[in-house]
Structure formats: C-alpha cells, structure tokens
Design a protein that fits this description.
Elements (H helix, E strand, L loop, with lengths): L10 H8 L3 H22 L3 H18 L9 H22 L11 H19 L3 H12 L4 H8 L3 H19 L2 H6 L7
Length: 189
C-alpha cells in the first residue's frame, strides 16, 4: 500500500546531504517538495506566489543544507524559509504598480506604510492555518464563497464560520495599541 503523503526525509538522508552526497541531496529535495508546497499554499496569498516561494525554499535548502544544525529541525527550518518568502512576496504585491503621475511619498510615509504592511502580513501569517487559508482565498485572492469552500473541502457554513473567526482575529490583532490595551481581557466569546 502506497501512501500519497510522503514523510519528511530521515535524519540519515539529511546528514548525508549535509556531507554533500548527491543522491541524498536529490532525495532530500524530492521528499521535502510536497511539504514545502503545502506550507507555501497555506501561507502565500496567491497560487503563483506559493509555487515561487516553494521553489525558492528548495533552492535555499539546496544551497544551505550544510548550515542546518539539527537534522530533526528540517521541517521547522523549511517552514520559516517559506514563511519569510511568502511575507516578502506579499510586501511586493502590496506596493502595487507605480504611476509616473503619482507624487513621490516622503521617507516618513514610506516607512510608515512599510511598517503597516509588515504588521498586516505578520498578523495574517500568525492566524491559525484553517482561518488563514479561508481568509487568503476569500479576501485576498477574491474567490467566491462557494469556490473557497470547494477548494478547501469544506461546507459553505464551515467556510463562513472560519472566515468570520479569521476576520475577527485579524481585526483584533490590527487594532491600535491603545484600543487593545483598553479592552484587554474583554474578548468576545
């Protein structure tokens, strides 16, 4: 019986890849690919960004496998690489096209806008995976409710519930610091 879901590479494969064994490196990349793609799909805002982030993460894995300190930490290391790449791609997407007619923003405005984008992207990345995936598909990619539910294998009511919880969690995280401190401990049930 073959399992369609591969497991992460063994510590022996990782150790051999760290030593430069070409067969172990190929096995490492092949066995990690499905996991990296799954991470990217749950974190990135578009399927194209997810594919690009997954490829970039595999390149980093190939180039820096020797810097991994513990073979058992491969999954968390790859998750961090994918997360960083998805955040970087989201930042680029939020900047949008630059118009020649648009006035040049001040350095202060640029810094504030960058900080706000980082705060939004970071807050989205910190959502629980089931909330993040619904929120990204529905609100960022603009899929319909039915398409979002179908792509995640959910009923429409379950999708709506997760979307509502994700929006509420994101809203509470993005409130101004003075609003969150005044309402600390008064969470809605």
């Amino acid at each position: 019986m073959t399992d369609t879901r591969r497991s992460w590479p063994t510590e022996q494969v990782v150790s051999a890849a760290q030593q430069g064994d070409p067969h172990a490196i190929a096995t490492l990349l092949d066995d990690s690919h499905a996991h990296v793609r799954r991470f990217a799909r749950s974190l990135c805002s578009t399927p194209e960004d997810a594919e690009d982030a997954a490829q970039e993460a595999l390149i980093v894995l190939y180039q820096r496998i020797g810097t991994l300190r513990a073979a058992a930490a491969l999954a968390s290391w790859m998750f961090q690489i994918v997360r960083h790449e998805c955040i970087r791609r989201s930042r680029l997407a939020f900047r949008g096209p630059i118009s020649a007619a648009t006035a040049e923003p001040s350095v202060e405005d640029t810094a504030l806008a960058r900080m706000e984008v980082e705060r939004i992207v970071g807050s989205i990345a910190e959502l629980p995976p089931e909330q993040r995936s619904v929120l990204v598909l529905r609100d960022i990619q603009g899929l319909s409710g039915t398409a979002t539910a179908q792509s995640l294998g959910l009923s429409r009511p379950a999708m709506k519930s997760r979307l509502h919880r994700g929006r509420e969690t994101l809203r509470s995280r993005l409130r101004a610091p003075n609003e969150t401190t005044s309402s600390a401990g008064l969470e809605d049930v």
